[in-house]
Amino acid sequence: MKRNKVKGICNLSAQIQQIFTFENAEQQTKLIGVNDNFLRLIEEGLSVQLHARGDQMTISGDESQVQLARAVLSELTNLIKHQINLSPTDVVSAVTMAQRGTLEYFGDLYSETLIRDNKGRAVRVKNFGQRQYIQAIRKNDITFGIGPAGTGKTYLAVVMAISSLKRGEVERIIITRPAVEAGESLGFLPGDLKEKVDPYLRPIYDAMNAIIGAEQTQRLMDRGVIEIAPLAYMRGRTLDDAFIILDEAQNTTNQQMKMFLTRLGFGSKMIVNGDVSQIDLPRGAKSGLISAQKILADVNRIAFVRFSSADVVRHPVVGLIVNAYEAAEERLALLKKEH
Predict the structure, then answer these.
(1) E strand or H helix that includes residue 169
(2) Most buried residue, 15, 46, 230, 324, by most Cβ within 10 Å?
(3) The organism sits in which domain of life (predicted)?
(4) Distance between CA 22 and CA 54 in Å, rounded?
(5) Could you say which residues of the chain have pLDDT below 50?
(6) Residues 83, 147 share a domain
(7) Does residue 3 form part of some domain?
(8) Domain of 272?
(9) Per residue in 238-289, pLDDT tens?
(10) What's the CA gap between 71 and 225, in Å, rounded?
(11) Rg, C-alpha atoms of the chain
């Protein structure tokens, strides 16, 4: 008999109903969400039906899923009790962790504020995968974050970089990416190499602006405290007392990856992020990120954190899209083997 990891609940197929009772009207309003949007996320994620009436909510569905839904509601209620305003991301994270059997760690995600953004809002990890990522960054000199878009790799890397800068642990932040064309020709874009690559660095700028504001970002860039540049600009440098982020690392060659990693200087940290399912290198070129996973797997002070579609913290449909494409690629690979 299979058992779910949440409180050892039996995974049975019986259809049941359970009652969840709200403690007060304010808790009910916050837990349900605007136009019942939080309830819909739980219903879709766990295949249950939720019906709120008065101070009670009926949970209907498969017994194991009903128990998971009840556990999710309890965890979200605890956040409300701690004066944390719920967002759709919080609800999706709780549902995903319940599905993966890691819901017991959900409350821990909110025990620490990594930083406050430029609007004063607390920035925290959103799921178990992100928690492992942050812990790896703290413990290691070089951390690889590998996984699909929407898992928060780039944003959290920038968060950790700014936090280190504010604490005086590093003197500057250097963010780079390979100048590989993503469906467009760089040759037809105006300006020098940096100006041509800047549009592809937009997610980095967006993260910086969200955390410290556009004006502060520009001031720090003008002073050289923050440097955002193509990977080619890293050659021949030794980067001491710096927090260095390589984004879109799947588009590096083996030579570029080795060049980048050997820039690490004293008092510095590196984060290498990429998604091996979105390689834009010319046909026949090998990804430096794929090679690095094999070559550096057993090297001390280097960590690899792998994200999956379950770690996606965007709209739930994004995770479904990632799953659908992965399934299609697996079917195509299988067909090629058969022929």
Answers:
(1) none
(2) 46
(3) Bacteria
(4) 9
(5) 1-12, 182-186, 188-189
(6) no
(7) no
(8) 122-334
(9) 899 999 999 999 999 999 999 999 999 999 999 999 999 888 888 888 999 9
(10) 45
(11) 22
